[in-house]
Design brief:
- The protein is mostly beta strands.
- It has no helices and 11 strands.
- The protein has strands spanning about 1-5, 10-15, 20-25, 35-40, 45-50, 60, 70-75, 80-85, 90-100, 115, 120-125.
- The strands form 2 sheets. Strands 2, 4, 5, 6, 9, 10 and 11 form a 7-stranded mixed sheet that branches. A 4-stranded antiparallel sheet has the order 1-3-8-7, with no helix packed on it.
């Protein structure tokens, strides 16, 4: 029903920038809320950012606020995560995910809210 493909990861030096993309193949015309999560080796998957259906509401974890920006282009079924001022602790596999359920607030969205996941893209930040 929903397939997600992330791209844009890579190796970057600390202080650098990357832009991740998440393209959704959705068989309905309905828009979904999309979240970005990340998982570093030996750690649990954690919430990074989310964006509502229209793109007007965005949510960020405290550790990326002011450095990362989430945006969506519904005409292209694509959600972006612009990452700036990257730090070595940002190193992880980044996943995008879709939540088809309307929510009043997506701050600190738990992964269990999201029904569809991409395969992930590796981001490595060197010091």
């Amino acid at each position: 029903q929903v397939q997600l493909v992330e791209s844009g990861g890579g190796l970057v030096q600390a202080g650098g920038s990357l832009r991740l993309s998440c393209v959704a193949s959705i068989r309905t015309r309905r828009n979904y809320a999309v979240g970005w999560f990340r998982q570093a080796p030996g750690k649990e998957r954690e919430f990074v950012a989310a964006i509502g259906l229209s793109g007007l509401k965005t949510y960020y974890s405290d550790f990326v606020k002011g450095r990362f920006t989430i945006a969506r282009d519904n005409a292209k079924n694509t959600v972006y995560l612009q990452m700036s001022e990257l730090k070595p602790e940002d190193t992880a596999i980044y996943y995008c995910a879709v939540d088809p359920t309307p929510r009043a607030d997506r701050t600190l969205s738990p992964p269990t809210w999201y029904d569809y996941w991409g395969q992930g893209t590796q981001v490595t930040v060197s010091s």
